[in-house]
Amino acid sequence: MADSAAARAETEIYKSKVDSMEQNIALLVAQLQSRMPDIQYPGFRRHVIANISMSPLSTEYSDDVSSLIQKLGRQFSLRHMTIDKSWTTIRRRGSSNEFWNGLQHFLQMAKPFVNDRGFIKCPCRRCLNNVSHQLEDLESHIFRNGFMFGYNQWIHHGEPATGNAGTTVAGPSGGIHERDEMFDVLDDIISEDADEDAVGGPSSNDQYDDLFAALRSELYPGVSSFSSLNFLVKLMHLKVLNKWTNKSFDELLKLLKLAFPKIDLVESHYEAKKLMTKMGLGYSSIHVCKNDCALFWKENSLKDTCPVCSESRWKLQSGKRSGKNVPHKVLRYFPVGPRLKRLFATSKTAKLMRWHSTGKSKDNDVMRHPVDGKSWQEFDKWHPQFAGDVRNVRLGLAADGFNPFGNMSFSYSMWPVVLTTYNLPPWICMKAEYLMLSLLIPGPQSPGKDMDVFLRPLIDELKELWVHGLDTRDAASENSVFRMRAALLWTVNDFPARSSLSGWSGQGYRACPTCNEDTPSMWVIGKTAYFGHRRFLPTNHHWWSNLQFDGRT
Which of 60, 200, 320, 439 is 20 to 30 A distant from 2 in Cα terms? Predict the structure, then answer.
């Protein structure tokens, strides 16, 4: 008797669940019919029954019947609607609102179909639905790598296997932020990764995930005009323009955190700098011997003493190394290749990089740009393969010392090494935003004859760019990929700086860089004098017959 009573009670519970399910179905059908009058109840009922893999009276049936019915309702709705997938073929993703909106609608559609751990298959061109990620990671993967080819029916992300044509699915009006202007910046930075399928397969580098996370997050609840990343970039820009110290920047961040407790912002300048490094705004710190003998780089990177003079790499206190290793000198090196590639990442600057071929003066007697000079033309004759592609880069190098403290009573000489791109037109190539700082050589003394030690990282990269080049996406040629090479044509500096760069002394009896060993010079009253300048005069010049000159003075 007890067993039969328990069975009857259990049957009553199951019946109540079935009645509840029927009520939910009827309610959902009524809502759907108000939006799509062509839907009939029997058709929807068959769809529900076909999607339930177990009997409604099974003991494993979920108590949350309403959530299941809502999910089935979304699936049924997708059978009667078309999903706009044209955005998946857009190549210039960062500058396309259509791609951004389509991606957001895709993520909203896929959200209910994540597994119990919050993972779902990733349809980017790298993962190809073979790897699962959390939903928030899908946005950065698809934006960076693009949407995979051939995945026309999104069966893993909510679309039924038998879809048909109809009207376009409209995305939700709320919950999606407007495309932030920083997406254009990120698109320029990661354009090479995003289009690597044209070179031989996308990269597996996930270094941009933190950037997309900062780009998705609101600066403050309810503030949609600024993302966390956008605000941080603008704040760092103000720091540079107004010469804030790192300490003052940290104090400002603390004040913002105190005044706005819910603000989504980094804790310190150190964290901000780490994030900016992922945007390609970083540099390499290379330790230098105290006596400028060698760099602790490449083959010397693990050494604690100089391979030339055996001087310690670290500052010592009372003959012993302090608790924290502090190097004597640090050379800052800013890689050139990524910045040259970025010049071709946008169509505007990519077209300007061809100006030396398309916009140069047609008047042979006018020189308004180095391309009009004989040196450029002779270089093209010597290296026809390099000259054959107008996109190959020609560089100029300038270096000089300055006192960064602005206090002339304090002796300190720091040497920046700057590159300029001569592919650009003359009214652009010398603007500050197109000059590339490549090295920042520390003081306190001028590098002098040891300049070659500090130039080694730059020379190694220039040799690599000259011999092998870099695969670069050209936005002005339908995002085609070409092998970009670069050549250093000139150096621009004063005479003392030229002495350091060339290794030829700018003073003494053989100071002339043109005459070299044949420099005509003599010692006159405590200084070196140079003579023989009449040889540069025209042969019919009257000074040749002037008796006041003996040919030497």
Answer: 60
